[in-house]
Amino acid sequence: MTIENRRLFQYLVKEVENTGLPREAIEEIVEIIGKNFEKYKKVSEDQLKMNEILRVVKESNDYKDSTDLHLLVSAPTKGETLNWDRERIKDALIKEAQLSDKEAEDIAFAVERKVLSSGIRTINVSLLRELVDNELFERGYQAKLKKQEVIGISTYNINQLIFSNTKENSNIKSNNPEAVNLGIAETILKQFALKEVFSPEIAEAHMKGSIHLHDLGYPVRAYCSAHSIEYIKKYGLRLDNLSTASTPARFASTLTGHINTFLASMQAYYAGALGLTYVNIFYAPYLEGKTDAELKQEAQYLIFSCSQNAFSRGGQTLFIDFNVHLGIPEYLENVPAIGPKGKYTGKTYKDYEEESQRFLKAMMDVWRDGDSDGKPFPFPKMNLHVDEKSFTDPKQKELLEYACKISSENGTPYFVFDRDKVNLSMCCRLRTNVTDKYVIEHPESMRFCGFQNVTVNLPQAAYRAGRTKRHDVEEVIKEIIKSMDVAAKAHLQKKEFIKKLMEPGRPMAQVGKNAADNRPYVNLDEASYIIGVIGLNECIKYINGRDLHEDEDTLKLGLKVISAMYLRAKELEKEVGFKIVLEETPAESTSLRLAKVDLKEYPESKDYVRGDIESGTVYYTNSVHLTADAPVDIIERIEKQGKFNNLIEAGCITHVFLGEQRPSPASIYALIKRTWENTSSAQIVISPEFTFCQDCNKVSAGYKRTINKPGLVKNVIENENKIWYQCPYCGFESEAFYKGSQDNVSLDDQYIICGDGTDGGCKKIIHQSIAEMMDSGSIKKV
Q: Parallel, antiparallel, or unpaired for β 751-753 and 765-767?
C-alpha cells in the first residue's frame, strides 16, 4: 500500500470510528474496507492526491537557534510551504498542549475534515492554528488551549505605534523607528510575562490593580543597577555582546570611552537606571598634573557623551546616575588606588583627595553651564553625597556652597544624605547600603542590582477593607499585607525565570556567569527585591477623611501603615531567603494606571483620586508624599516626609518645588544644613521651573505660558515711536523703533525684529498690537 493510500485508509477508518456504531460493526466495516481498498485505483482523485493539492504555509518553533524566526522568510513565521500532513497537527498537540496520543489524533482528524470540506488549496498556519484552538475550545480543553495560544499584536495597533507618539515614557523624546520596535516588543512581551513568567494569581492581581508589576515589557531583564568604574579600570572591556576586547585605559579620555561602551552594553540587561559610584574619586588617579582647563575638558567629554547615548530601548537617552563626593569617604581613604593600565599606583585614595575635588569642581562647572543652549542635563544625574564633614571641612563646604549656587540656578544637584556608612544611589531614588567588607576594600566588586519593583496599591487596599469595616486601619493593613505577599510571590517567580536565562547561551548569561573578578556580575541571592508604595495619602484619607498634612494624628496613621509594611517586609525576607525592601515608587505612569483601574472597579475611588476624572487625567499621590499642592512650607514638607525615610530602605526623595521662585545659594545651603541636622530625610532636590523655546532653543527661568504668542511690549517711549520689549521666543530685552512708525503705518500692523541693530536676540519678527495694548492700559506712554 502506498503512503498516500495508507493515510487515506487511516482517514476512512477514523471516519468509521467516529460514527458511533457498536464496536463489532465498526470492526466488520474496517475489515471490509481493508480487503477491498486496493481493488480501486481511484477512490477520490482529490483525496488520493491530497498531499500534493493541499499545501500548508508552515510555522516552526523547533529552532536550534532563532535565526529563521527573525528572518521571516515567508509569512507568517518561518515561511516554508509544505505538503499537508495531519501527523504534524497531532505531533504539535502532543508537544505543545501535552495531549495524549488518542486525544491529539481525534482533534487532528476533526481539523482535517474541516479543511478538506472547505475546498481551499493553501492554508496559512495561523488559520490552521485557529481551527485547532477552536476544536480544543469546543471539546473543553481550556487549560490546554493556553499552551497553543499565539501572542501577537494587531495590524491596527502596529499602525498606532508607527503613526503616533507614546507619552508613557518621558525619556523617549520623539517617535522614531527604535521606539516603534520597542512598542511592538513591549506589547507582546507584556502578554508573554503575564502568561509564562507569572502565575495566574499574579497576573490577575496586576490586571485588577492591587499590585503593579513595573517594566512588565522587559521580562527577560533585571530592573536597575549600580556599577563600579574600578571594574572597568582594572579589567578593561571584555563583554559577550562586544565582538572586540579592550585592555585597561591609559588615559582619562580613553576611560570615558570605555565607560560609555560599558554602560551602553549593560543597558541590554537592565530595564531601568545604570548608576556609577564615586565618579570623581575613581577618576582622580588619571588626572594628576592637569590644569583646570584640561580638567573641564575631561568633565565636558564625560558628561556630554554620557548624556547623548540615545540608541536603544526606544531611542531613549541612557538613564545614568553619577555619584560624586565632596571628599574621600573614610572607608575609602586607605583603599589602594587603581590608575592607568589597570595598575595600582602605590597610593591610596586619600592621596588623591585634591584631584578628586578639583575634578568635582570641573564637573559642576559643566552641569552649571548646561548644554549648548544652556539647558540643564537630565542625565547623567548629579547625586551629590553629603555627610557631617560636608559642613565642617573648609574645602568640602566650599564645594557644597557651589553646588547650592548651581541648585539655585538650574536645580541639577540631588543632595543625598549619607547617614549610613556606605550608600550607593541610582535610578530616581533607589539606594542600598553596602556591608560586605571585601567589597568595600575591593571596590572593583562594588556593584548592586535592584532586581524587580512591584508596587502595592494602598488606596485599593483601603477600598477592599472598607467593604467590611470602612474606618478600621487594622483591616486596611491586613489587605495591604495580602498584596505584599502577592508581590513577594511575583519576585520569586521572576527570580526563577531569570535564573534559567542566566544559563550559558541564554539572554542573561553575560551577567549571570562569574565576571572578571571571579564573582557573579549579578548575584540573584544578594540583589534587592523591591516593594513599592503608592497613594498613602489617599489610603489614609479614605480611612479618616483627612490628607496627611492636615494634622499630626493623620500623619501618625500613615506612619503606622508604613511601619506595618516594613515589619512584614522583614518577615518576608526570612520566608523567601532574599532581601526585600520598601521603596517610594517612581510613579510616572503607575499613578495614572492604578487610579484608572480603581475608577472602574471601585466607584468610591472617584472621591479620592486626584486630577480630572472627565478628561481621564487622574492619579494618586506619589508614594508616601504629601500632596503636591499641600499648603505647607518647604521645611514642614521635608520634615514630615522624612519621618518615613528610615522605614523605606530602598530609596526616598523629597522634591522642593519652587515654581518661579529663585532662592539664593545661601538659603539653599541653610536648607541643606537644616535638613541634615534636624530631619531623617534621605535625599532632596530643588526643582525650579524652566521654559524651553522650541523655536530658538533658549532656556528661560519660570513657566512662560505665552512663550509662543505675540511679543511682550513692556513700555512705549518717546511719543510711541520707540518701545522697550522682551522677545517671547528667546527672552532678549532691548529697546527699538517699531517698524512703520515713521511711515504712518497703522499701529495694528507694526512689528519689531528681535535684536535688530544689536549683537543679541534671535532676529525673529515680533508682531504686536500696540494700539490695543495701550487701550487696555497694559502699557503706557513715557
A: antiparallel
